Each structure stands twice: as C-alpha cells, then as structure tokens.
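Working notes for the structural subgroup meeting. M.R. asked for a predicted model of this chain before we commit to crystallization trials. I am recording the input and output together here so anyone reviewing the notebook later can reproduce the run.

Input as submitted:
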Amino acid sequence: MAHYLDLAPNRLTEDPLILIVPGINNSNSRHWQSRWERQRDDCARVDLGMWDDPHRNTWVNKLNLAIHRAERPVVLVAHSLGCLAVAWWAEYEQPSRGNPVVSALLVAPPDVDRPGTDLRLARFGACPRATLPFPSFLVASDNDDYCQLRTARMLAQDWGSRFVSAGRIGHINAESGLGDWTFGRELLGRLLREHRDTQDRLAGPARRSAARHARLAANP
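Returned structure, recorded in token form:
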C-alpha cells in the first residue's frame, strides 16, 4: 500500500508512525480513524482497553507503552477522550519537545470539567492545561454536544495547538457521516510535511559537515 506522502522507500523507516488514539467505545469500522488505519501502512491503533469504562492511568500507561514500542518518531491522531489521554500522557511523562512525539492531530476533545458531564469523562478531569511539547492541531465542531466551541478554542490556546473549526459536523465521529474525512487527512498531511521539512533542514548542516570532513580526509 502506498505511503500517503509518496516518500522514497528508503525513508519510510525514518518517517513517523501514526498512532490512532480512539475515545470511549473505540472507533467502529465507519469511523474515519478506522478508515485511515485500513488505508495507510504507516498507521497503528493503540489498544487502550476498557473501552466502555475507561480508567485514566490505565489509558495513559498503555499509550506510553505504544509510543515507546514504536522505536521511531510518532504522530498521534486522537479523537474525543483519546485527546485527554494524550494530554495526560504529556503531563505525566514530561517529554522533551518533539521526542518521541513529533506532532498530534487532536479531534473533538470533550469538556471533561463541565458540570453534569458523563462520569466516564469526568474521570479525566481536571483537564491538563499545560502547553503540549509538540506541534498540534485541535479540531472542533461548531455543534459538538460534548464541548462548546468557545471551550475548545480556550483549550487549544492553553495547549498551544493551532485551532481549526470543522464546521457543523457534530462530534466528528462515525455518526457525522464523514467517510474518509478528507479535511482531516489534509491536516495530518500538513503535520507530516512539516516534520519532514524540519528533518531536512536539520540534516542539511550535518550533510555539509560530513562532506567537508571527507574532502579534508581525501586531501590531507
């Protein structure tokens, strides 16, 4: 199966692994996360377990294990409560910037601190508010029953995420009827390209230095 960005084959092992992080009840076969997983060869789902009765620390620990087992850079694609698992992972693990997670697409995070919210969501409160140590998009819907748009904007500001409004499409899940959700794929593609461009810039000076040393060695 072709790589989404059509990178050279010898670069695939250097490119990020995309880890799918679903929310409550996992993502069914019609969900855009599941569609992406089927379509991409650089994509894997994190098995958080306890899907209908999530436990915060269990989810964070399983996410941490998946990230470190990747043994390569990681891009997180989280939906709903999965976004809070990502935020709590960053809060607990305090990773250095861009290592091992290089970026994240955070879609439809719920307001876990809203009075009267589902107790399964409330277990993930109070929501961490520290700036995330990696670039990210936070995508929200104008009519998401789990989070008001204003709250999502504030959360994006706190996390240091680039806020994106996806329009009036509910909770951005299977019931939203998004199919492959082309708009989300474009955002993911942008994150991957940004990472690739950063790596190319960093590699440039190293390649020039190696070439200079090679010339000196050849002409003592």
